[in-house]
Amino acid sequence: MHVLDTQIHDTLGRPLRDLRISVTDRCNFRCIYCMPKEVFGRDYRFLPRRELLTFEEIERVASVFVGLGVNKLRITGGEPLLRRDLEVLIAQLAALGEDLDLTLTTNGALLAQKAKALADAGLTRVTVSLDSLDDEVFRAMNDVDFPVARVLGGIDAAAAAGLPVKVNVVVKRGLNEDSVVEIARRFRGTGHTVRFIEFMDVGATNGWRLDDVVPAAEIVRTIGAEFALEPVEPAYRGEVAERYRYRDGSGEIGVIASVTQPFCGDCTRARISADGKLYTCLFAVRGHDLRAIVRSGAADAELEEAIRAVWLRRTDRYSELRTEETGALRKVEMSYIGG
Ligand SMILES: C[S@@+](CC[C@H](N)C(=O)[O-])C[C@H]1O[C@@H](n2cnc3c(N)ncnc32)[C@H](O)[C@@H]1O
Ligand code: SF4
Fold it and tell me: Does residue 274 have its Cβ closer than 6 Å to ligand 2?
């Protein structure tokens, strides 16, 4: 296991602690805030298979990041469970360190059949996205007519396999703001923490407008009016969710206020796209090609030096600079870079 004296800091003093790895840019949903159908329909050009990092390449890149002080790996996409035999990759990554936090974000569609294999392979926990318990609203948001019940089935299967579960809810004005209280009610007392996420201007296709954002403070007020809440101190520097607990002891919720209360100052995350580009911000326009280094036959030391150089130069703080105008910039899509 690598120790923290290898920790590197960027120009704003932020350590490199988390790595998000996108394993595919494809998805079986077309969430209107992420991969809207009119843009990502049949004609969209997804990455050809040979351009994706192989499991061995991902493992190699991840091991270099772990050597640089990363202690949390999140597998994402696109929909990561579309990547065949994902549990094989999970086992490879789990072997990189006993204390690694190894997690996965999924839409839950394939989770019921995969949960046990993922847990057995060494996944430490899972985050499942679910934007409403109302079938009509949920189907309108995923835009492929996918029912709520099957996602709930996935969540139950994950819990039965012993995986701690978080539930992610993206809130968009006029769409699912009325679903917020019901979701909080459904998961209170289950041990699954729900995290409500402000609709963000990721990518260039989701038609983001500031008016569509339901501020986290409003979400907390709405839930607090139904169930008494109190704030919880952050568990560590860089925690993205602001946490609240139910006063009656029935659990916690979180809100991720990346639009109204940006947290760039504490951002310790790097991201690898499915084709092996390193991004130091979710809102980046350009990545650094690690795949080229990996496939050139270079030694790990060279790969480590390239990653180190990128992190040491890092200046990103997009969310703190965001305006209606920056929202329209040409940024990479979240399905590609990994949410
Ligand atoms: C890009 S998805 C990838 C993993 C998986 N397909 C899923 O949906 O959980 C990761 C997370 O990003 C969230 N997300 C996608 N687009 C977003 C947006 N425009 N604003 C805020 N969150 C978004 C999703 O709801 C999900 O929780
Ligand atoms: S949020 Fe996840 S499930 Fe929805 S379209 Fe994006 S990648 Fe797919």
Answer: no
